[in-house]
């Protein structure tokens, strides 16, 4: 069923065979061919959650992956960028913008879960290097945070920014890093200083990021508020290096919202559906959550918890009302 914000059942990505060289891990496969257990399917995870405690069921709701058009576009673009990493001099990048709760952080967390950092006795693999930018970043701290994201540990805190950048470039190579993800990227916007050069509005940290990108040939994914997209549109250096754009919005109370709720109704760890996408329930849930994806998951997780505590097979109207009261929504 396809709408302007399409939803599908979660599926694992197809395997590929791209590799750096004979000594490197295969990008889309575990580094341990002899691994004994296969990852659980979405249905298996749901069935296991349904056997758990009310809190375990509620926790499961927060991890449900709904493949909206934006989610699928983000992952298709990111995996294409990962394939291009180090293979071409300018692999490109992506800027994901949206207000809080629209799915930016969820995309990052899902990506890290799909390609986790793994350590062996000989080396650390970090295909996805993900960090969150602080609200008052400095170029040196930005580089240091990237280093820490690869697993780099140092007892020496006195290295200069230039030394740290060289260490980082080597760490990215040693860890087979394929993409760098920076959340809260709107903090890239300088809060002070001259903004007269329209090609370098990203400030000193933008210059550091461009240096790392140019030297490593590793794509960047930036995510942040809509002001980050405005910055990229105005800064020619950022725009031409990382030209991909995905804009996330809160849901309107329309057919796409009902489709989303129908899919969630199927995915919730309850024995029976509750007609989540039907009128007037879908309108009520939109009134409570304002169409915000994060708020929606928090609300539904509390509905599931309350219903599970009473051993109910489905979420009732009373459970919806009690969850609204409990969360003060």
Please, what is the oligomeric state? single chain
Corresponding CATH architecture of the largest domain: 3-Layer(aba) Sandwich
Number of helices: 13
Question: Class by helix and strand content?
Answer: alpha/beta
> According to CATH, what is the topology of the largest domain?
Rossmann fold
Can you tell me the CATH class of the largest domain?
Alpha Beta
Q: In the CATH hierarchy, what is the superfamily of the largest domain?
A: P-loop containing nucleotide triphosphate hydrolases
N-end to C-end Cα span:
31 Å
Outline, from the CA principal axes? elongated
Number of domains: 2
Number of strands: 7
Largest sheet: 5 strands, parallel
Strand residue content: 5-15%
**Biggest sheet, strands in spatial order?**
4-5-6-1-7
Rg over CA atoms: 22 Å
Low-confidence runs: 7-36, 193-199
The percent of residues in helical segments reads 40-55%
List the SSEs and their pairings.
Blueprint: H1 42-50, H2 54-62, H3 69-84, E1 93-97, H4 104-114, E2 118-119, E3 124-125, E4 128-132, H5 139-149, H6 161-174, E5 179-183, H7 203-216, E6 220-224, H8 226-234, H9 236-241, E7 244-247, H10 255-267, H11 281-289, H12 293-309, H13 317-327
Parallel strand pairs: 1-6, 1-7, 4-5, 5-6
Antiparallel strand pairs: 2-3
Helix pairs in contact: 2-12, 5-6, 11-12, 12-13
